[in-house]
Every structure is written in C-alpha cells, then in structure tokens.
Amino acid sequence: MPAAATPDTEQVRINTLRALRILDTPPDERFDRLTRLALRLFDVPIALVSFVDAERQWYKSISGIAFRETPRSSSICAHAILGNDILVVPDTLRDDRFKDNPFVTGKPHVRFYAGYPLSASNGSKLGTLSVLDDRPRDFGEEDRSLLRDLGRMAEQELLAVELATHDPLTDLANRLGFVALAENMLTTCKRLRKPASLFFFDLDNFKQINDTFGHAVGDQALSQFADVLRGSLREGDIIGRLGGDEFVMLLAGANREQSDKIARRIEHRIAVENQGAMCRGYRLQYSVGHIEFDDRRHVSVTDLLAAADAAMYAHKRASQRAAPAAAAWPAQSMTA
C-alpha cells in the first residue's frame, strides 16, 4: 500500500492547518450539517470532513463510522489533497494505490471514494469533504458538480474559522493563530532538544505616521514591515502580528549565531526599504527584544512572549536615552 506523496509546500500547509486551532476540537454543527447533507444527496453510508495532519488524518465531522483519527499512511484523503479537484476512486479493489489499504480489506470495507480537497485562503490543501461507499459505483459529472458545491460550502466555513486566527491586513497569523503555532513548535523543539528563539518587534513612531499621514498610510507601513519579516525568515519559522504595531517571530532550531544572522538580514532589508523614505515621507523604525527559549523558565508561550516584550521595551528605553532625537518626527535613525 503506497502512502501518498508529501506536498511540496508541506510545512506551510501544516502551519496553516495548526494555526486554525481546529484539530482535536469538539464536533461542530456547521460541518456536521454538510456531512449529513452529503449522506442524503449521494445515498452513501459514510461522509466526512477530515484534515490531514503531519502523521494522522483527523475527522472534524464524520457520519457512518466512529473513528476520530486514523494514520496518515493509510489515508485516501492524503492522496486527494495532492490535486486541485475531486479525487474519484470508482472501485478501490481495482486501484493499485488502495486495493490493500486496511480500510478497504477490513472495516469499513471502503470500495468507493470521492473527495473534494479543502483549500485555505493561501491555497494550502488542508483536508477533504469526502463520501465513501462499501460497494463500487459510478460518479458522473452531475455528482461531481454537487460534491464541489458542498466542498465550497465547507471552505466557506473554514474561512470563517481562519478569520479568527488570521490578520487580513498583513496576511500573518494574529495573536490567537501565532500562539497556536508557537505551542506546537516549542513542544517539538523541547522533545527534540532543539533551540528556539523569539523576537518581539515594536514599530517606533508609528502613532506619528498615523497622525501625520492618516491610517491608510499607517496600514501601508504595517504591511511593509510584515513583508520585510516574511522575506527574512526561513521556511518553517513562524511570524505573527499580535496587534497594533507589535510583531513577533519564532525561529525553530536556531542557535544564537543563526538568530543574529536573521536579525542582521532584517536590519539590512529595513535599510533598503528606507531608501524610499523621502518619497513616501516616513521611515520604518523598530525596537526589538530577543529571547532564547528555556523550558525551565518559559513554561508556556505566554511566558516567552512576556520575556521578549520586556526585553524589547528595555531596548527601546536604552535607545531613546542614547539618541533622544530618534524619537522625534521625522526620525533620523533606525532602532534595531
């Protein structure tokens, strides 16, 4: 039984899924409604909304069987998320990918499968809305169209969940989403005895940008800073906007030398951005606090954030004492 291939953007996909904080949550009527409807419309014994995690398939809604999760290695849905449209398997016993799958050869004896891959707003395929039968069957274009409609309804429900964990202005995780991702990352780092570092950023003179140029320009400054951070990180690192002009990034497996390298990269990118300051009328400036994760002192993500926040404010105060003119508008130097 061949396991499904891993998507090229797997780390982004997993980060997107976990930022939703939907895994291991109780049943939800908005998804249960769709699986009940699928049972009736397609006259099948099993319908499900599932999400493909790193090592498992977890069911947010399932009608017809009592599973809550199954191994990813035996997941047909893990194959479905590799495509952009419905995966239809008319007869699993005639398909080399699935003929010896334990859920085909044993209970619930799946012989037919049709699954619509559910996309997040960034395009990541997180899971499926699927219908299954214990007998082979055809699945014509009308059936496919109907399943697509149900799948798009499920994606709208996912979008509603995503809006609670996503900052639409900067396209970063918000506080809720960042904490969810950071909890998973720190647990992994602790288990594997890998280092981790948190950077806490605060834009200097941001209120003056808003007061002088208006909130639209202030939003532009926030988006610019988010782009700088996004372009400076490695795949797998986590970045978020906590609110207002506060940003955070969590680096997994980064020692002090690697963290300093990324800090210098951000400083350089900000300097490049500020080459256009004369045209737009403002400079991007920031204060930053950097804390290395220590599981003896930082019991939770909240502890780590609080320590980095305190380090950031200490840096801001020290910079203002050293160069008080930097706090005036327009600022003449960057705090970093």
Describe the structure.
- This protein is of the alpha+beta class.
- The protein folds into 2 domains: 10-164, GAF domain (Beta-Lactamase, 2-Layer Sandwich), CATH 3.30.450.40; 167-327, Reverse transcriptase/Diguanylate cyclase domain (Alpha-Beta Plaits).
- The chain has helices at residues 10-19, 29-42, 77-80, 102-105, 141-163, 175-192, 206-213, 215-232, 256-273, 277-280, 301-322, and strands at 46-52, 56-63, 69-71, 87-89, 112-119, 125-133, 166-167, 172-173, 196-203, 238-243, 246-252, 286-292.
- The strands form 3 sheets. It has a 6-stranded antiparallel β-sheet with strand order 3-2-1-6-5-4. A 4-stranded antiparallel β-sheet has the order 10-11-9-12, with helices on both faces. Strands 7-8 form a two-stranded antiparallel sheet.
- A hairpin with a 5-residue loop joins strand 5 (112-119) and strand 6.
- Helix 2 runs antiparallel to helix 5 (141-163), helix 7 (206-213) packs across helix 8 and helix 8 crosses helix 9.
- The longest helix is centred in the middle third of the chain and has 23 residues, at 141-163.
- It is elongated and about 75 Å long.
- Residues 325-336 have low confidence and may be disordered.
